[in-house]
Each structure stands twice: as structure tokens, then as C-alpha cells.
């Protein structure tokens, strides 16, 4: 058995976006590196025929970013995006399986955002931004490029490509709307077109409307507004006609988790089809009959069929089940999943299970010894049932405790820990377990997996019960002799970073903390983050809500910076638009003002997620060194 190195963690390749052909035999997926070494992320498309022995082959030999594989209705052609001609500008390419030739079928100046082969074999629907005008080019050349916010804002528009003539047309519909998703009715009928008033992530998701569009006649019909952050369109037939479903945030709160909504296209009110369920929908997948629904279900995942009386569970899968794809009949599915000690791979089978693994993208991990991982069920201070994961140091058992314990809080807060392999470039349980730490991964209220009411419990009062939920788990591990109460650390990224910053302002129990891309001031985040209204719903108010003090002040870690005595490591991407760098600068200046031991690291060119290889390596090594200094020294 071998130990982990930072290089072993970040240099792996991960499967993405599996696509089953309609015939159920052919399967394609994207293989991507876990980190980026240059200016572009070079990905690959891999193909196989599932009949007989699975033998994978590369679809192309290009050095390019290849993505979004989509099959033609007859399974004879694979369409995908590739920037092989001009890096950073993806175009639609076509691979004809009969001859093996790959050709570009678009040359749009701004690149293609998404594509959908239609029932008519000569048509492909595209999403693409407008090409620059002569005035745009002249202004860019002369640097007369002042940005007027809201004016000439980039929007993706619906366009149609005629493969026979090569002509690309833009129907004169939705001209003032940003198109985000398309789905054609299974019988080859109209397209459902999901739009927003803007591409602005703060404003756009709250302005969704869905339309019908007939590609044969160009006629469009407005079906009305949809709930916030709508996505994952799916059609299905019923006795009263066609229905259109989608996932969206559960009203009236913007921070309370997703639901499946059902719209009868011929008329009728929208219905929440997952209300009251103790699990949370994450994907909706179209078939020719009832759609399939993926549910986050505690630490595991349930695959269900959306029948008239509600979701019918078909199978349960350990950990995560992501990127589901199905044949039109819905009899065969492919998805990304793994296990406690096995990384994510592509699996195929019946929706009723079991699924068989058909890829092995990280064989280099076969000889690695991992820490024992087990589910942890416990109760909050108010009696609410909770769960999480405990990972023990490599080669140790619970009887060998107590151990230094690092609690890593997940992001979101509408995220979750599932019973999957916990090994990533960011602070992860197996990376720390390899260095002798026990790691607690809590799922406090506000997250996925236990239904809408559970998710809604933190809106407007972050840092309250979710914080005591985490403490209850730590207290249990101390009482059981697993955690050393004198060697406790806490870490997290994004909302988890908020919780780490919050924790050290509430207690001196922790000897070290890591705040990665963390929220320190909810009012400032609502004003400057790309998801402002979502953050305002979590924090409870905005800075323009009168003279204050505001509700968000009472739940912002910066308000309690004068209490912090714990050494803090702050890590943040310089170009983060989700949680802007100013959040980290604010905490750094406060800790410097109060003389608190801390280290502040900014990663150039990085956003909310760290992508460059050397930065990921630094992140891993710096994290472990920080906790070693304060918990092992």
C-alpha cells in the first residue's frame, strides 16, 4: 500500500458528462484532468460499444477542450463542442460513426454555448451570443470600451443550424431574453425554451419564463413565469396531454432547496411534485414516458420515476449519483458514481439497478491505503435527526483514539456530504486522514438530503442551529474518545468557510481554523457577490435596509472578530466573483488589527474554485502544514 501525495491527488483524471446513445449500446463521456497546467483545460471524448467486452477509444486526437456530447436520434452521429480551431472559442463538431470523420459544423465568432440535435436529422438547435458588430470591433480597437451596465449585455440566443445547407439562422423570438436551456418534446414536436431577463446571476435566475417554439414554423408561445433558478427541463405525456417539468428553488424562499415542478402545457396551475418528501431532487431526466428523478437521500442517492401519484423509487445507490443519462425508453441509464474507497467512474445498467462500472479512470489509486470511513447518525440539541461521516486516521481504529480532529463543513449551505470517497484538492478527509487526523464531515440543517423543511431551517439565521448541529457532533466524538478536546480544528470552503470563520468567533475550543473562499460579511456579500439576493435571503437583510444595525450584522463573522483567538489560515482566489476577495481582506485586516495569528494567501487568476495545478498543490500542502503546526506540534 502507498501513501497519498499532493501530486497523486491533483494529477488524476475524472469522468464527466456521460451520454448514452438512443440505441442503448453506444456510450460517450468526457475525460478531464483534475487540475489545469496551462491556459486551457485539455479534455478528451471517449467512446465505447456496450455490447460484449467494453473497449474504449478516443473520439478525436486533438488537443482541445471537448465537451457536451450529444447523440443524433438514429445513434449514428455524435455532436460535441470543441475549441480545436481557436482555443477558448468552442464550435459544434460532428463525428459520423460510419466513416469516423470529424468535421466542424459551426464557425460562429463568439463560440457556441450549447447545442441540441433535433428530431429532424437536418436541424441542430444552438445557443450562442450575438456576433460583434463593426462598431463593437472599432470600439475595442480604439479602447473606447466603456461598459454601460445593462446595455448590450451578452445574452445567449436560440439559433437553428441547417446541416444540409450549413445555414445558421436566428429566429426573431425571445430577442430581449437570455436563453439558458432547450428540450425537445420526445415525439419530435416543439422545443421547451427556458429563458431569463438577463445573464446576470443575481437578477436573471429570478426572472425565468418558459416558452414553446416550433422549429418548423417559427411560432412561439409564452407559457409564463417559472420559479427561481429553474433548470433540468423534461417532457412527458399524460392523460390530459403533455406536461413539462423542471427543477427550481422552492418558493417563497430563495435559499430553501429545490423541488420538481409540473406544468400542464395545455393549461393548468404548476404543481410541486416533491413537496413533503424527506429527500431532495437534484436531476430530472426526460424519457418517452415518465421522467426519472435523482434524489439526494441522506448520505446516499435514490433514483425514482415520476409517476402520476408521485415519485416511485426504483433503486438506491451509495453516495452520489450524478450526470444521469437515459435511453428514450428509459430502460438503460448511465451515471457517475463511486463508493467509500473508489473514485467516481461511469456506471451503466437498469434504473432498477444494479449498475456496473464501465470505466477505470484512476487506477493509480488502487494501491493507496485510505482511512476507515463510516456514517455517523446523531441528534441535534433540539432533537433533530442528523447525519454525517467520520473518517479515521489511516491504519487506525476508533479504539486507538483520541485523535486530533478536524471538522470540515460543506458549502452551499444547500450541499451535503454523501458516503463517497472524500479525496479532493480542497480540504478533504482522506488527505488529512493520511496525516494522522480524524475528520468529521457534518450535514447540519440547511443542506440537501432531508427534504425542503430541513433545508429551509437556516434561511435568515445562518450560524444559529446549523452551528449547534456541528457542535453536537463534535461533542459526541469527544465523549466517545475519538476526538481529543485539546486538539480540535475546523475548516471549510464557501459557506463552509463562513462556518469556520463563525466558529472561531463563538468559541476558543478550536486550536486552528482554515477559511477558504469564506463569507465574513453577509451585507457586503449581498451587495457585491454574483448571487446577491440568494445571499441576502441567507443573511436576512441587505445594507440598504435602513440605518441598521441589520439582521445580517448579527450573523456575520466579522462582527465577532474581536473575540477570535484561534490561529486562522485564509485562502482565497483573486478573481472570485461568487464570494469576492474583499471578504477575505476584511477578515485579514480585522485579525491583523486584533493581533491574531493568521496567514492570508491569495491565488492569482483563480475564481471560487482553484483550478491551476500548482495552486492546488500549494493548497493541499499548506492546509496540512497549518494543522500540523497547531494540532500536532
Describe the structure.
The chain has a domain at 369-632: Alpha/Beta hydrolase fold, catalytic domain (Rossmann fold, 3-Layer(aba) Sandwich). It has an eight-stranded mixed sheet, sandwiched between helices. It is α+β, with helices and mostly antiparallel strands and 633 residues long. A hairpin with a 2-residue loop joins strand 17 and strand 18 (241-249). The chain contains ten helices and 36 strands. The radius of gyration is 25 Å and the shape is globular.
Task: Give short descriptive properties of this protein.
eight-stranded mixed sheet; 35% strand; globular; 36 strands; protease; 633 residues; four-stranded antiparallel sheet; Rossmann fold; 10 helices; alpha+beta
- In the predicted model, the low-confidence regions spanning at least 5 consecutive residues are none
Output the CATH class name of one domain: Alpha Beta
N- and C-termini, Cα separation = 27 Å
**Second-tier CATH architecture of one domain:** 3-Layer(aba) Sandwich
By DSSP (H or I, 4+ residues per run), the number of helices equals 10
User: Looking at this structure, what is the CATH superfamily of one domain?
Assistant: Alpha/Beta hydrolase fold, catalytic domain
Fraction of residues in helix: 10-25%
What is the residue-mean pLDDT, rounded to a whole number? Answer: 95
| Main sheet record | 8 strands, mixed
Arrangement of strands in the largest sheet:
29-30-32-31-33-34-35-36
Secondary-structure-based class equals alpha+beta
Organism: Actinocatenispora comari
Pfam family, one: Peptidase_S9
GO molecular function: serine-type endopeptidase activity
Keywords: Hydrolase, Protease, Serine protease
Amino acid at each position: 500500500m502507498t501513501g497519498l501525495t499532493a501530486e497523486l491527488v491533483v494529477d488524476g483524471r475524472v469522468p464527466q458528462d456521460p451520454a448514452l446513445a438512443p440505441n442503448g449500446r453506444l456510450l460517450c463521456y468526457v475525460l478531464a484532468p483534475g487540475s489545469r497546467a496551462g491556459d486551457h483545460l485539455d479534455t478528451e471524448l471517449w467512446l465505447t460499444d456496450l455490447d460484449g467486452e467494453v473497449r474504449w477509444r478516443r473520439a478525436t486526437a486533438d488537443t482541445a477542450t471537448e465537451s457536451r456530447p450529444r447523440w443524433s436520434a438514429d445513434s449514428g452521429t455524435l455532436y460535441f463542442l470543441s475549441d480545436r480551431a481557436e482555443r477558448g472559442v468552442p464550435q459544434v463538431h460532428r463525428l459520423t460513426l460510419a466513416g469516423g470523420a470529424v468535421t466542424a459544423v459551426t464557425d460562429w465568432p463568439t463560440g457556441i454555448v450549447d447545442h441540441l440535435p433535433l428530431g429532424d436529422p437536418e436541424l441542430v438547435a444552438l445557443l450562442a451570443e450575438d456576433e460583434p458588430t463593426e462598431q463593437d470591433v472599432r470600439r475595442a480597437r480604439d479602447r473606447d470600451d466603456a461598459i454601460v451596465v445593462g446595455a448590450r449585455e451578452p445574452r445567449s440566443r436560440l439559433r437553428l443550424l441547417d446541416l444540409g445547407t450549413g445555414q445558421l439562422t436566428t429566429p426573431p423570438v425571445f430577442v430581449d431574453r437570455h436563453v439558458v436551456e432547450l428540450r425537445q418534446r420526445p415525439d419530435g414536436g416543439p422545443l421547451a425554451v427556458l429563458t431569463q431577463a438577463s445573464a446576470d446571476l443575481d437578477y436573471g435566475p429570478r426572472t425565468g419564463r418558459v416558452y414553446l417554439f416550433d422549429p418548423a414554423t417559427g411560432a412561439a408561445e409564452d407559457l409564463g413565469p417559472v420559479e427561481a433558478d429553474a433548470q433540468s427541463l423534461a417532457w412527458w405525456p399524460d392523460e390530459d396531454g403533455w406536461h413539462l417539468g423542471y427543477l427550481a428553488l422552492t418558493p417563497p424562499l430563495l435559499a430553501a432547496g429545490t423541488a420538481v415542478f409540473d406544468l400542464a402545457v395545455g393549461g393548468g396551475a404548476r404543481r410541486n411534485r416533491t413537496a413533503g418528501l424527506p429527500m431532495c431532487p437534484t436531476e430530472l431526466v426526460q424519457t418517452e414516458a415518465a421522467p426519472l428523478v435523482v434524489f439526494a437521500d441522506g448520505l446516499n442517492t435514490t433514483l425514482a420515476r415520476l409517476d402520476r401519484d408521485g415519485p416511485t423509487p426504483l433503486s438506491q445507490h451509495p453516495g452520489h449519483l450524478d450526470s444521469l443519462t437515459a435511453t428514450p425508453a428509459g430502460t438503460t441509464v448511465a451515471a457517475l458514481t463511486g463508493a467509500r474507497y473508489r473514485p467516481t467512474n461511469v456506471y451503466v445498467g437498469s434504473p432498477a439497478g444494479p449498475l456496473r462500472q464501465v470505466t477505470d479512470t484512476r487506477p493509480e489509486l488502487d494501491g493507496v491505503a485510505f482511512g476507515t470511513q463510516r456514517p455517523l447518525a446523531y441528534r441535534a440539541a433540539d432533537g433533530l435527526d442528523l447525519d454525517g461521516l467520520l473518517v479515521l486516521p489511516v491504519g487506525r481504529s476508533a479504539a486507538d483514539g483520541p485523535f486530533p480532529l478536524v471538522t470540515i463543513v460543506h458549502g452551499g449551505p444547500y450541499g451535503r456530504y454523501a458516503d463517497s470517497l472524500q479525496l479532493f484538492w480542497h480540504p478533504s478527509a482522506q488527505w488529512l486522514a493520511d496525516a494522522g487526523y480524524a475528520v468529521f464531515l457534518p450535514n447540519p440543517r440547511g443542506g440537501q438530503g432531508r427534504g425542503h423543511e430541513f433545508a429551509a431551517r437556516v434561511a435568515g439565521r445562518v450560524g444559529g442551529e446549523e452551528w449547534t448541529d456541528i457542535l453536537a457532533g463534535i461533542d459526541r466524538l469527544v465523549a466517545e474518545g475519538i476526538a481529543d478536546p485539546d486538539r480540535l480544528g475546523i475548516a471549510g470552503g464557501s459557506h463552509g468557510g463562513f462556518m469556520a470563520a463563525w466558529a472561531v468567533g463563538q468559541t476558543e475550543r478550536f486550536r486552528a481554523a482554515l477559511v477558504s473562499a469564506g463569507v465574513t460579511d453577509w451585507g457586503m456579500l449581498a451587495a457585491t457577490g454574483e448571487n446577491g439576493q440568494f445571499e441576502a435571503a441567507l443573511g436576512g437583510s441587505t445594507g440598504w435596509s435602513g440605518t441598521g444595525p441589520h439582521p445580517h450584522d448579527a450573523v456575520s463573522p466579522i462582527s465577532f472578530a474581536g473575540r477570535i483567538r484561534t490561529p486562522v489560515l485564509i485562502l482565497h482566489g483573486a478573481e472570485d466573483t461568487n464570494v469576492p476577495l474583499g471578504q477575505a481582506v476584511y477578515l485579514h485586516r480585522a485579525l491583523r488589527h486584533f493581533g491574531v495569528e493568521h496567514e492570508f494567501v491569495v491565488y492569482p487568476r483563480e475564481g471560487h474554485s482553484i483550478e491551476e495545478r500548482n495552486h492546488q498543490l500549494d493548497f493541499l500542502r499548506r492546509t496540512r502544514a497549518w494543522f500540523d503546526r497547531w494540532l500536532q506540534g
